[in-house]
Amino acid sequence: MTTSISEPDHDLIRSEALGLGFDICRFTDIDETWPAAARLEAFVAAGRHGEMEWMADTAERRKHPRAMWSGARSAIVLGVNYGPDHDPLLVLGQPNLAAISVYAQGDDYHEVIKARLKALARWLVARFGGELKVFVDTAPLLEKPLAERAGLGWQGKHTNLVSREFGSWLFLGSILTTLELSPDAVDPTTCGSCRACLDVCPTGAFPEPYQLDARRCISYLTIELKGPIPVEFREALGNRIYGCDDCLAVCPWNKFASMARDQKLAAREVLKAPTLVDLVRLDDAAFRGLFAKNPVKRIGRERFVRNVLYAIGNSGDATLATEAQQLLDDPAPVVRGAAVWALSRLAPEVFADLRTSRLATERDAHVRAEWAQN
Predict the structure, then answer these.
(1) Mean pLDDT, the chain, integer
(2) Which one of 9, 29, 137, 184 is the catalytic residue?
């Protein structure tokens, strides 16, 4: 049995959500067709999901919110502003420093937002009854199309949500519920003729507006891809070692966005622009310590140091060649391979002197290829 919620009750829910730390709260029904399903199907069929097999495996459940939960009748979609207090693109001009995506400079937003969603959920059930489920990015629910239906903003040409109030800087969370909630109006705004986000992409990851090829996206390459990053993209990485903010940061709507005030999600000073030297020297324990309660921790020390070594190779600073050389014997092949590439870029003479002896002892095929092809 479903329960209808009145408009004044909507205001109560919004007030409770804002009090828990959300910056926006809107409602939508989930009765209509779901155009996002066709876009997802085309995305997977084209192989643009790369190694993210979970997207293909869960595609059926992603086709509609009710495919996730047949009892759902409405959705409450919430956002938390994470607008930075600095220009995240400035660090790209300082090749000895590391660029970490804004969303990963503070505590893991999944944990912070999930705790708030659960608190709101408990309040909702106590006040109105019904059943519900909460989601924060990790379940097979297409939250950006859901947020668009609820009127939080619109999906921009970079495929991310754009908001009049918060620009491209919104974390999303959702609650599916058996409650009947009248929907908020959809925001009719569009990106118009603007293509700033498409043109700034370092790897050309947008084959067309509103379409992303994850296999070319620096966020995918530095976070999701487990093996060596393809050679064709390494220079374009620059000093981006975890994610990429370029398409978000150039969005003109950001000029209307206020800086985030959420202390639980505030950037840690040590992660705003750390040095490549400090990061490449991290062992596993130091890596886990530095990124405790932080999303970077999930990719592990090996993939992270791989990224740092590519950035070192792009730095143009020959004094960093010794950092790469010291990791030629790292236990992880993905680290060794990246160290070889960085060394070949910064100290070609040293690389040439070592090539023959290293090829004679190296057993990993990918690392051997790095020695052979450079």
Answers:
(1) 91
(2) 137
